[in-house]
Automatic annotation (TrEMBL):
Belongs to the short-chain dehydrogenases/reductases (SDR) family. One of its GO terms (biological process) is fatty acid biosynthetic process. It comes from freshwater metagenome. PANTHER family: 3-OXOACYL-[ACYL-CARRIER-PROTEIN] REDUCTASE, SHORT-CHAIN DEHYDROGENASES/REDUCTASES FAMILY MEMBER. This is Unannotated protein. GO terms for molecular function: oxidoreductase activity, acting on the CH-OH group of donors, NAD or NADP as acceptor; quinone binding. Keywords: Oxidoreductase. InterPro entries: NAD(P)-bd_dom_sf, Sc_DH/Rdtase_CS, SDR_fam.
Amino acid sequence: MNADQVFTLDVSQEENVRAAIATIFAQEKRIDALVNSAGMTGPTNRKLEEITWAEYELTLRVNLFGTIWLTQQVVPIMKAQKYGRIVHVASIAGKEGNPGMAPYNTSKAGMIGFVKGIAKEVAPDGVIINAVAPAVIRTPMNATTSEETLKYMIARIPLGRVGEAEEVAETIAFMASRACSFTTGFTFDTSGGRATY
């Protein structure tokens, strides 16, 4: 990959998303896959009434609004191509919730609902959109998660450990490929057995 093919993108700003996708499309002339792994935990180990709206909104802007804006920009391109794969990294917290993480839970649940609905809209045009819902994964994003919160989450994972980024990447690689051709609107769990429904 060349230096001109790497983009640093703040997905919390719609104009940044629009400009980045336009630049990529102008250079490449098509977009076959979008993998959105941008995210933040936001406030952790805090009660709802202790969280400011600014903290809540920033978490929503990165995790949920960024998801919507990225999808809005690539869908017309993919529809015109009659092909596309979109993968959004959600979280098991979007399905089950974690105490003390209201903004994160809200944003990831919204992402899962968004994927379900949009999948039905774009399926006739050859566009597949799914989410992946990891449990706690060893990443820099979790460096600020409190020890108490991490213990709570790991205690609910039957495999008894955090997941590794490579394990999630393998799932995403399938989801973004042509091999994922008959599954859309779905949320794949990479939860170490935490989600068994």
